Amino acid sequence: MAGVREWLSGRGRPPGPFRPEFWRSPLRGPWLTSVFGLVLLVGLPIVALTGLVSYAAYNPGLPGNDMTPSKGLLGFYLFDWPTSPVWLYRLTQGTHVILGLTLVPILLAKLWSVIPKLFAWPPFRSPAQLLERVSLVLLVGGAVFEFVTGILNIQLFYVFPFSFYPAHLYGAWVFLAALVVHVALKLPRLVTALRSRGFRREMRTGLRDTRPEPPDPDDLVAAAPGPPSMSRRGLLAFVGGGSLTVLGLSVGQTMDGPIRSTALLAPHGRDYGPGPNDFQVNKTAASVGVTAAQAGPGWRLTLLGARQVLLTRQELLDLPLHTYRLPIACVEGWSTEQEWTGVRLADLARLCGVAEPGGVQARSMQQAGFFNQVSLSAGQVADHRSLLALRVNGADLSLDHGFPARIMVPNAPGVHNTKWVRELDFRVPS
Question: Transmembrane stretches, by residue range (predicted)?
């Protein structure tokens, strides 16, 4: 109580974590923090940049595709998303999600190592220190926000009181700006700290010989350290083992074959449907309000162009069909490669009188959720591998995979490969 009264009277520090003696771990120090920081300095920019690339893959400049219309200058880097190589989105989004998950234990360890800094008192003593503190708050807050919302999103656990897409984009730019400022301020100290002791020597130091680091200007080293219960070698092994475990339990969702069953952290389970349709399902027909009756004999595909054309599924099957082995990858990180058979989108455009389509808007029977209609670019329509798919792996599509027909475009995000297509509008607005 004496400490509280002293603080309330305007003297001293607040009680608890604001006092240096509260933090007693003998492991904290510039070297340990810098080891975690170096790993994150390599990994986090990759996660951020692949996330920004994912936004570009949605072709937000096309009608109806932009989930963040108020982005303003934040979309300065956007470019026309290509159809080749066909594995590009599978690689970038898989890297974004899997690497992000793998870095979670390291991020938590880094936050643990610097937590005394978050309670420094007074908060700043100079303008330079104020800038450092602001960058630290934005860096930590941005990282926590991006990781928490991202993990909830890939698990399809939508509990946000805001729209995920713009919030995640804005959060990414806030985080990147804070990271640049923080690295500019801290890089010299990181290099000095890493050179202060050899990594191999530290990995050979057991619990008995573990000692606190020398006092440092950032006050990361405990003022009154307690006895160690773990060596730095043990802590690094624990954190690294946690990251490798997360990697091992999630990387299988980006691969085909038996390893897919190891993806215990995949959000959609590992049993997806019968026979040739046994691969990932993002949204089931029931979850978006599509019934078997809607997809039954009465279904018609409407083509809109210079003229309107209505086609039954059998009439589509009577058109020239083409088969390609193409990957499909989702924003949640999973991907798979399957063999798709269908009619080329370019052929359907010509059928309704559009010889050189400037793009197409695909509309679905989907009743609930996002992306019940998406726009594809002229380049995507013109690619000879872009199909209105009717079959997969030699069998009819299952209802959950988009029967009676779905879009399949090389290198497009999964949600742009529209399922349960009812209309293709090649009348692109000028």
Answer: 31-58, 97-115, 136-158, 170-191
